[in-house]
Specification:
This protein has 340 residues and is of the alpha+beta class. It has five helices and 19 strands. The chain has a single domain, classed as Metallo-beta-lactamase, Chain A (4-Layer Sandwich), CATH 3.60.15.10.
């Protein structure tokens, strides 16, 4: 399945997203490789209800890491998929729940011996470990993998940032992004759209591939225009470089301190600051998290309710094997850089 690109402007920067196919769910890397064990989905029903499940992602390398566990109904499926990888639940050393919704953390009980992360809580058994995720600081696992705060969908969402893959830097993002084309829906699912917008812009600037919570992974392609010279620079972020804008706090993502590589990036759409900039203002501590007003009649949970087949055509349904090509498919995918 081929994918088309969708453009997203960020002042003088332009991001393009292109969805990977369902045959591209294995991303090789050194030292970590990534396998999407299950592609999340959200399916609207005629009675106004919906069916949804979160993406489940496995990292293998120096540590064996699972990001999100699906819903409780996925228990047998998850055990089987791990067995397909010659793993038992006891082989998982770290489980990261990107946030506390039931379709993302429904099988934590399979992993009593693992370190468990749910949002900003990190525990080993009944022992909770100190961290500064809720203050906007990353939690490094090693030099290649870090847990990074990506609030907005809920106040304590986190993502997993993985460096050193053949596709570049990969962000396993939970519901920071629903799917490749989610701009029609993510705000109505968000507890704080302004904060989530900043988190999303940071993710677009610092990732080559994003694995969303309810759809196929997608690539990020970037073109930038230097307003002073008119120079156009195209391509994804390199693993060792961070496109840093004025006043942006480098610690918003681990291991991405300004290196002098790559062009600079201005502030986000409409002047929205980066997550690091928002959280690092005033000594690095964010202000109190306040949920944005939510329209009456819309669920605050997993998925936006939708109306009829016309909405499905706009991208509500997110699994190509169930409903045919997604809104991202049908065109020619264009990559702006070679694989690492």
């Amino acid at each position: 399945m081929e994918a088309t690109e969708k453009n997203y402007a960020c002042n003088s920067s332009e991001f393009r997203r292109s969805e990977l196919s369902d045959t591209e769910l294995e991303i090789v890397g050194q030292p970590y490789s990534i396998s999407v064990l299950k592609v999340g989905y959200c399916l609207s029903e005629q009675d106004g209800s919906f069916r949804a499940d979160g993406t489940i992602t496995l990292l293998t390398g120096p540590r064996t890491i699972l990001v999100d566990t699906g819903g409780p109904w996925d228990r047998d499926f998850l055990v089987k998929r791990l067995k397909d990888k010659r793993l038992d639940p006891g082989d998982i050393s770290l489980v990261v729940g990107t946030h506390g919704h039931s379709d993302h953390v429904g099988n934590l009980g399979l992993f009593p011996g693992a370190t468990i992360v749910v949002g900003c809580d990190i525990s080993e058994g009944d022992r909770y470990l100190p961290n500064q995720l809720s203050e906007g600081q990353p939690y490094p696992i090693d030099e290649h993998v870090s847990i990074v705060p990506t609030p907005g969908h809920t106040g304590r969402d986190v993502s997993l940032l993985v460096k050193g893959t053949t596709m570049g830097t990969v962000l396993v993002a939970g519901d920071l992004f629903e799917r490749c084309t989610d701009d029609d829906s993510w705000r109505e699912l968000s507890e704080n759209p302004a904060v989530q917008e900043a988190s999303r812009q940071e993710a677009l600037r610092t990732s080559d591939v994003i694995i969303p919570g309810h759809g196929l992974p997608f690539r990020i392609h970037m073109e930038e225009v230097d307003g002073r010279s008119g120079l156009v620079v195209a391509g994804p972020l390199q693993e060792s470089g961070h496109r840093e804008g004025p006043g942006v706090c480098c610690s918003s993502y681990p291991g991405l301190e300004a290196s002098g590589k790559g062009p600079s990036v201005p502030r986000g759409v409409g002047g929205v600051r980066s997550v690091g900039e928002m959280l690092c203002a005033g000594g690095g501590r964010p202000g109190p998290f306040v949920a944005a007003p939510h329209p009456p009649g819309h669920p605050r949970g997993r998925c936006r309710r939708t109306d009829g087949a016309a909405r499905q055509a706009e991208g509500t349904v997110m699994t190509s094997d169930e409903v045919g090509p997604s809104p991202c498919s049908g065109g020619v995918r264009r990559s702006t850089s070679p694989a690492f």
